[in-house]
Design a protein that fits this description.
The protein is of the alpha/beta class. The chain contains ten helices and eight strands. The protein has two domains: about 140 residues, HAD superfamily/HAD-like (Rossmann fold), CATH 3.40.50.1000; about 70 residues, no CATH class. The strands form two sheets. The chain has a six-stranded parallel β-sheet with strand order 5-4-1-6-7-8, sandwiched between helices. Helix 1 runs parallel beside helix 3, helix 1 crosses helix 4 and helix 3 crosses helix 4. It is globular, with a radius of gyration of 17 Å.
Amino acid sequence: MKAVIFDMDGVLVDVSRSYRLTIKKTAEYFLGQDIHISQIQEYKNKGGFNNDWDLTERILNDNGKKISKEMIVNVFQRFYLGEKHNGLIKNEEWLLDGNILEHIQKNFKTGIVTGRPKKEAFYVLERFQKKSFFSVLITMDDVPSNKVKPDPFGIQLALQKLKSHKAFYVGDTVDDMKAATRANIIPIGVASDTKKYEEQSKLLLNHGAKWILKDINDIREALE
């Protein structure tokens, strides 16, 4: 049976007002100046920033600030998690319709490969009651720091656990498309930014996407 493996952020979960906003607020905390959300997307488009802590550090470095990774992570997590998950994490919304997900689960093996820490990935799946729909969950904790996307390690690990060689990987970044291509499976790109759809879809296609979705809920068409 074929497998469908999903990235989480920007694909299954809307993180525009959680992780993306946390990057912005953390950078602004240390810089004392405004950072526009579009600047964050520009870094994502370049690739190599699957980890949002690393991306935040790069923004700071590019603006002349050298801050220890430990301090960056502490401030980042304070904004994101808050006290007992009352931080920006509470702004997240689940994107994939439950009926569509149920259909996929019945016809494919299903998994997730995400750059989130395991605790945060489990939290969102449990919060939205979607944990049972996925047989495999590969997170930051399962992947060596030098093997994150665009390295195919995480996807290959998921394929191994799913015992599947033919699969789709659904992601929204250049790194997702590169990782899927290197794992020899079919990359499906999600270009959900309606204002920059053409630019985003072209970028994903140029890095290996075989299909572009404007909305994750159109995915059944890509799998047929």
